[in-house]
What does this fold into?
Amino acid sequence: MQNPKKWIRVIGFDDGPFRHSEKGETILVGVIIRAKEYLDGVVSAKITVDGLDVTEKIIYLVNRPKFASQIQLIILNSIAFAGFNLADIKEINKKTGKPVIAVVRKEPDGEKFRNAASKLPDYKERLRIIERAGEVKKADVDGKTLYFQSAGIPDEDAVVMLKRTRKRSAIPEPVRMAHIIASGIIDGVSRGRA
It folds into this structure.
């Protein structure tokens, strides 16, 4: 991503709350903003708890005609949605043509993550997605530490975009807003931190 611009349109994704003990669905919400200032749109879909459908749902939502030409960057709240419904960031980048950044507040425990994934159906596919996501990198975002994986964007540009898209917290604003909206829809009131 050459010369990251201040006012690009970014979509951030997060999932809604769910019960680990109950299989079923939760909501996936995408919020489109212009950098960190203006809300331009919201998209949503249902995803399966511990399923393998989040990648195709993100691709579908980003490629919808209304927003496809406008969105220039995709930011995910980690690669894990609805439990272990893992987003393949390389596939999302390939099928949308947009750079992808998956970001989290806490450093992931790779071994623990792989062990948990290995207990689920289709564990080989899940492990493949984890490996394809690549190395987890550390970023200093205005004095706060974030961890990220990316596809289709150099690390330096990813860090610049993490800084340019944050407003009230270390987490990029579209991801923070997606979290608030998703939890509000599922629980009737927003809660927690993205």
User: Anything to note?
Assistant: Helices lie at 54-62, 89-96, 110-117, 123-133, 155-164, 173-187.
